[in-house]
Amino acid sequence: MERPLKMDKMPKWADVVLIPVISLILAAILSALVIVAIGEDPVEAVNLMVTGALGSTYGWGYTLYYATNFMFTGLAVAVAFHARMFNIGGEGQAMLGGLGVAMVCLYVPWPHWSLALLAACAGAMIFGAAWAAVPAYLQAKRGSHIVITTIMFNFIAAAVLNYMLVNVMRPQGSMDPASARFPEAVHLPTLHELLAPIGISFSKAAPANVTLLVAILACFVVWALIWRTRLGYEIRAYGHSETGALYAGISPVKITMIAMLISGALAGLMATNNVMGEAERLVLNSTEGAGFIGIAVALMGRSHPFGVFLAAILFGFLYQGGAELALWTSIPRELIVVIQALVILFTGALDNMVRMPLEKMFLAMRKGKA
Amino acid sequence: MTVPAIELKGISKSFGPVQANKDISISVAPGTIHGIIGENGAGKSTLMSILYGFYKADKGEIWINGAKTEIPDSQAAIAAGIGMVFQHFKLVENFTVLENIILGAEDGGLLKPSLAKARKTLKELATEYELNVDPDAVIEEIGVGMQQRVEILKALYRQADILILDEPTGVLTPAEADQLFRILHRLKDEGKTIILITHKLREIMEATDTVSVMRRGQMTATVKTSETNPQHLAELMVGRKVLLQVDKVPAKVGAPVLEIENLHVTDEKGVERVKGINLEVRAGEILGIAGVAGNGQSELLEVLGGMRPGTGSIRLNGSPLALSGAGSDARARRDQHIAHVPEDRQREGLIMDFHAWENVAFGYHHDPAYQSGIFMNNAALRADTERKIEKFDVRPADGWLAAKNFSGGNQQKIVVAREIERNPDLLLVGQPTRGVDIGAIEFIHQQIVALRDQGKAVLLVSVELEEIFSLSDRIAVMFDGHIMGERLPHETDEKELGLLMAGVDGKAA
């Protein structure tokens, strides 16, 4: 049966910019209605969020700290997306990454933080990738669905971490299920310490640190990998068509494994920020759900590293702004989660709700012109 | 003058900027077979979808038996006495014939009375129209020809007086097609009106009373079939003179390039699809494999192209090819100078969302010419694409366009350009002109023949007998995983091949 010629329905800028912006506005309107419904002032709330997250270097420091986490996990999900796999295991991979970082920092004496960071990156990537390897193998060889296996591996990761902290890494005499504090030598410079020498004063208390630069570097590397290398070409081709990949001599097993290993490594890298950069020791639940936020970040960023970068900053803002809101108003902590959920809902799940009318509008405009 | 069974007045329909139907008027006399012919994308299926209530026309009126009728959905179409037999059957595979027939037309909540009634009606219909089917047979266990009859019966059971058939012979053997046409004539004699949509000129000439030609959404002509000929219809379809027959010099056949011995292929479900075949393709010849879709030809191509494993022995220029494990994948095949134009360009041959220039590297992305250090040399790739686009006259000549935005013919030209320009020793071609417009068919056929004239071997798989006849230097017929026989094109005819395709050895009989 013949079908009408398909056309690109919208200009690219509308796809990349307009749709996320409209989705955000819709989420904001709905959030405002909820805030009104519980008897608070939405204008005041927005004001608090913006000042809290962006109004000071302290706020920025937190926003960027969260954004760093989300960049890593967002990239992790994005790379798997390109191979048409849904890696929901970012959370577990990041936890294991934390284990890798903690081992590197605790058990090796480091002369300088820069060397420690390099080794910690390697440790985080290896542990994160290893945690992704088992679901990847099961998917590639046995056809076990990656969504199911990666979710299950999140729980196993939490249990493994729990065991390691309680039975292996907990310092003697401590009642706290956490590792010992990392030595001073592996302390990563915060933005305050990085920016002070060039005369910019940045809040001392904020946790944003040098790993932000690692995250930005990771965005560039992922971009080059996906769009400039042969491996990226194969990953994208496989993601678009598995039979096509077979035809072109691209091994589905190989690509599934490699894409998931890269994805797991990126998720693991997050630990250099939250474990090494912020907590400076390994604690239970150190990931705080960042692995899941990565899914929303990747969706909103259209699996493009630049989009992931922007979306990560947006979610960093929501996290920090939300915390401020809970601190200064009687808006309950749970409502912040609702607002974040609305953003995820509109930018991720309800994408088509905005897309379809927009596509129609653009088609009508084009027709009007023709 | 009799009242027309169907009259369409000024039907227009557009999808976004694409005008699929433009001011179409057509009048179909009752008790006739009316053919609608046109290239892919001419708007035939859109027009019929409007008539069947799938789409709503932007403009225009539908008159059924002299009364203006609104058809907002398929229920309304059925109520107006219109039945449709789709190209891809809409049957529930694990239901029986009877269950499929009453599906959606049950009389009440309980099935038993409906089934009993349907059984009785079915018997009447069977005798009236000679449409014999076993009502208790399960759909997945009967042949496609039989399944099609079930579709026709489904329409008749819903009291259709007007029957629309969309490309009905695509999956049939010539013998089955002949049988279908006999049924259609019988239906016509009983007063039914039939609309036959096809892109095959031969069917129009054989089966119809009147034929309407569509081109680019417009109705270009309606003529009595007895007053026209295939050449004339082809010109009306394409809008210019076309060569229906490929011009080619006799083959200069050389040494064997591909030798297949006792090849077996089993699919994912464990069903043996190729059951021990022996074939040889020589340099400078085109070996055509004829057969109804699903008789193992696809699997044969896929094994040769490195897409699935097999057992047996294959030699290329005398040296053996791996059939499973290392060295049996598509990349290894390409390294051994086997090029492959796959049967399904949209799922296999192209990545539809990739730019044309990315697709030009597809399968050859390891070529050092496309690399620069650790990166792909996209500039080199784009330059190569521009050259191929020009040489193969791909339109629009824009390498940045995504593959999905090209027409079927131009997509195929991209694939053919990529594969033939590699100058392979052996070219595997599956359904090279499926869904391709006549103009591009001509061009693609010429390219395949040109490769053969350079002394290369070509293995062609096609379900279109016309294509097999016009390209092949030798024809092998596949049925149920076996080679039923080999023939030379000038020593055989469609009838004999048709019998072989149905599994009947013509010589033995």
TrEMBL record, chain A:
Localization: Cell membrane
InterPro entries noted in UniProt: ABC_transp_permease
TM annotation in the entry: 16-39, 59-81, 93-110, 116-134, 146-166, 205-226, 246-270, 308-329, 335-354
Membrane topology, record value: Multi-pass membrane protein
GO molecular function: transmembrane transporter activity
Pfam families noted in UniProt: BPD_transp_2
A Gene Ontology term for the protein's cellular component: plasma membrane
Domain of life: Bacteria
Predominant location category: membrane
Entry keyword Transferase: no
Keyword Membrane: yes
Keyword annotations of the record: Cell membrane, Membrane, Transmembrane, Transmembrane helix
Protein's name according to its UniProt entry: Ribose import permease protein RbsC
UniProtKB/TrEMBL annotation, chain B:
EC number, as in UniProt: 3.6.3.17
Intracellular or extracellular location(s): Cell membrane
Gene Ontology cellular-component annotations: plasma membrane
One Pfam family this sequence matches: ABC_tran
Highest taxon of the lineage: Bacteria
Keyword entries, A-Z: ATP-binding, Cell membrane, Hydrolase, Membrane, Nucleotide-binding, Repeat, Sugar transport, Translocase, Transport
Gene Ontology molecular-function annotations: ATP binding; ATP hydrolysis activity
Domain ABC transporter: 6-241, 258-505
Membrane topology field: Peripheral membrane protein
Family per record: Belongs to the ABC transporter superfamily.
Protein name: Ribose import ATP-binding protein RbsA
Taxonomic path: Bacteria, Pseudomonadati, Pseudomonadota, Alphaproteobacteria, Rhodobacterales
